[in-house]
Design a protein that fits this description.
Rossmann fold; binds 2-deoxy-2-amino glucitol-6-phosphate; globular; single chain; eight-stranded antiparallel sheet; 638 residues
Length: 638
């Protein structure tokens, strides 16, 4: 949450910062601001609301500088207004900071500053005050062996010379909580100083320009060679280079990597919204997740499913006796399909857990427990912390993520990338379908590693998976029908999604999609649970969306559909070629999907009409599809 971009050494740096903020706006969009440096002082413009409010303000008071720092905010402390927007200044206006994260001890730190006036209600502003205080303090010429971290930090500066990096080091030693910080000072106008703890921060240097940003999306127009700052690291970025140090001031090495997508992938490419574009990218995204997974280990040997990125020897999996899948939101729903796949092919019991709950209880985890942490962004703090909790108990962790070099990927013992390309819309679509495919691959791989699935079966199942992209194209061709259905139902008060087996995670995902972008009330239930309570909510006018593909639970779904229809609900049934003839007499509307090439691949297809339905409902209701209210794409605070 919150997007940061800093640029130094570029003519018209503010234009670059605004362009970067445009690509980071999905991280938070309740206010935005920019500050430029100049030996004469800092110049600051910030506005509540979307980035367009800031750009309008900048037209009225253009800022020209070669160093600029910008921020787009998702509010945690203090309402989203001009005052609480970042950047924040110290009282003298000589230091400015932007922050992503939460400073948990901000009240204590404010109290330590004494009788000082704060301009905002944020937890972040205090950091600017503290840095200014450090810069104003006389620095010791040398630090004694018994020096505190703060004193040692100051010792790297020449005696009497304020050093921004040293001052920031001294201050971060006092911070509790999570932060990605970027700091500028009027007295050091060509320098950006950054610090990171439990919130992402990326550095880059290209053609005499230094950059920092929360996400590579903001930098990809300049370079695809980047480095992720690691926890506890700080950096000084100038047009001449980047110096990275640890909290003690010793040289440190960030995680350097090459981004494998380009600017075009992060553009709308003619679609009205990123969400619609990303829905339509799913056939290619799924094909990319599946690419090159089946290979003969040696000439003459039968081909095996190979997940080279995992970095964990296949033999290791024979010792696993339990799996935890940790994730949040949409990724959690993909994990629910993962449970079905792993239990089916590998025969290992699987618990799927909301990551924010897992980390605060005492789960039974040991070195024989495999933890699969699923996160599109790889930066969701709850999932990262949940995985760390498991690693502390020596459980191997596999990250299933879309973002190469993300924190989750770096921290894990093994990683499986979904290769979906950048997902910009807050509502996740192609990341979800590729996560499901990733889960299916992991389930099959564990089954293969444990000798429960023969090579010939693996090859047959993968050949079936390879037909999923074409089946997805057939589903996308139903868009016209879904627009009509959205037209009919976009004003309903309440929608329930029901499903069984592989239909249940999709019912849950369908309800999440509808509520997050259309703000309609939507809930999901296992179809069999309806009569244990939720059916009391059904009344004439309620809409029930039922996932009813052909398969072993189809008969039960038909019974559950009849039960809600008998109580006045309108039923929209999502069936497959083999089930819709039987559904027609029980549902008001029936959508026919192609039969999936494998039952466990069914969710990849059946979620797509629910994505399109939600999209059309939201646009008909005039909502901002790509940036729904109160949400942010990357949730880096608890
Ligand atoms: C999806 O539409 C949501 N915006 C949200 O539930 C998301 O899936 C969740 O925050 C987890 O994000 P992650 O996959 O990046 O960890």
């Amino acid at each position: 949450m919150c997007g940061i971009i800093g640029i130094t050494g570029q003519a018209a740096a503010v234009d670059g910062v605004v362009s970067g903020l445009r690509r980071l706006e999905y991280r938070g969009y309740d206010s935005a601001g920019v500050v430029t440096t100049d030996p004469k002082g800092l110049r600051l413009v910030k506005r509540a609301g979307k980035l367009d409010n800031l750009t309008a303000a900048l037209e009225g008071q253009p800022l020209s500088a070669s160093t600029a720092l910008g921020h787009t905010r998702w509010a945690t402390h203090g309402e989203p207004n001009d005052r609480n927007a970042h950047p924040h200044l110290d009282p003298s206006g000589r230091v400015a900071i932007v922050h992503n994260g939460i400073i948990e001890n901000y009240q204590t730190l404010k109290a330590e500053l004494g009788d000082v006036r704060f301009a905002s209600e944020t937890d972040s502003e205090v950091v600017a005050h503290l840095i200014a205080e450090e810069l104003a303090a006389p620095a010791p010429a040398t630090a004694p062996a018994t020096a505190t971290a703060a004193e040692r930090a100051m010792s790297t500066a020449e005696a009497g010379t304020p050093d921004l990096l040293a001052a920031v080091r001294a201050v971060v030693a006092r911070l509790e909580g999570a932060y990605a910080l970027c700091v500028v000072a009027a007295d050091d106008p060509e320098t950006l100083v950054v610090a990171k703890h439990e919130a992402p921060l990326i550095l880059a240097q290209a053609d005499g320009v230094g950059y920092c940003a929360s996400d590579v999306a903001a930098l990809i127009e300049h370079t695809n060679e980047v480095a992720a700052l690691l926890d506890g690291q700080l950096a000084r970025i100038t047009p001449d280079g980047v110096e990275v140090v640890d909290v003690d001031g010793a040289p440190a090495t960030p995680h350097a990597y090459t981004v494998d997508w380009d600017l075009a992938a992060a553009e709308k490419q003619g679609y009205d919204h990123f969400m619609l574009k990303e829905i339509h990218e799913q056939p290619q995204a799924v094909a990319d997740t599946l690419l090159d997974r089946l290979n003969a280990p040696a000439p003459g040997l039968p081909p095996r499913l190979q997940l080279d990125e995992l970095r964990i020897d296949e033999g290791e999996f024979s010792r696993i006796d339990k799996v935890f899948i940790l994730a949040c939101g949409t990724s959690l729903h993909a994990g629910m399909v993962g449970k079905l796949a792993i239990e089916h092919w590998a025969g290992i019991p699987v618990d799927v857990e909301v990551a924010s709950e897992f980390r605060y209880r005492d789960p039974i985890v040991d070195p024989h427990t495999l933890v699969i942490a699923i996160s599109q962004s790889g930066e969701t703090i709850d999932t990262i912390a949940g995985a760390a909790h498991a690693r502390d108990q020596r459980a191997p962790v596999i990250a299933l993520t879309n973002v190469v070099g993300s924190t989750l990927a770096r921290d894990a013992d093994g990683v499986l990338y979904t290769h979906a390309g950048p997902e910009v819309a807050v509502a996740s679509t192609k990341a979800f379908t590729t996560q499901i495919v990733g889960c299916l691959l992991l389930g099959l791989y564990l089954g293969q590693a444990r000798g429960r699935v023969y090579s010939s079966e693996v090859a047959d199942i993968l050949e079936r998976f390879d037909r999923v992209p074409d089946a997805l194209r057939e589903v996308l061709a139903l868009d016209g029908q879904l627009r009509e259905l959205a037209q009919r139902y976009h004003d309903v008060d309440s929608t329930m999604f029901i499903g069984r087996h592989a239909g249940l995670p999709i019912a849950m995902e369908g309800a999440l999609k509808l509520k997050e972008i259309s703000y309609l009330h939507a809930e999901a239930f296992p179809a069999g649970e309806m009569k244990h309570g939720p059916i009391a909510l059904i009344e004439p006018g309620s809409l029930v969306v039922a996932l009813a593909p052909a398969g072993h639970v189809f008969g039960k779904m038909v019974s559950n559909i009849q039960e809600v229809r008998a109580r006045g609900a309108s039923v929209l049934a999502i069936g497959t070629a083999g089930s819709t003839a039987a559904l027609v007499e029980h549902a008001d509307d029936v959508l026919t999907l192609p039969e999936p090439p494998h039952e466990l691949a069914g969710p990849v297809l059946s979620v797509v009409p629910l994505q399109l339905f939600s999209y059309h409902v939201a646009t008909l209701r005039g909502e901002d599809v790509d940036q729904p209210r109160n949400l942010a794409k990357t949730v880096t605070v608890e």
